[in-house]
What we know:
Elements: H1 34-40
Amino acid sequence: xxxxxxxxxxALVKMTDGPSGGNCVLVYYSxxxxxxxxxxxxxxxG
Length: 46
C-alpha cells in the first residue's frame, strides 16, 4: 500500500485461543483516530 493512494492490504494471522470458522474477521484501519472509523462500523453492518 502507498500512503496517498487507495487500496487495501491484508494478512493471514494466527492467534492463541482465537476462534476459528464463521465470521472471524480482524479489521485494521489506517487513520489518525480509529474511533472515527470505528463509529462508522455499525452503520455498515459490522
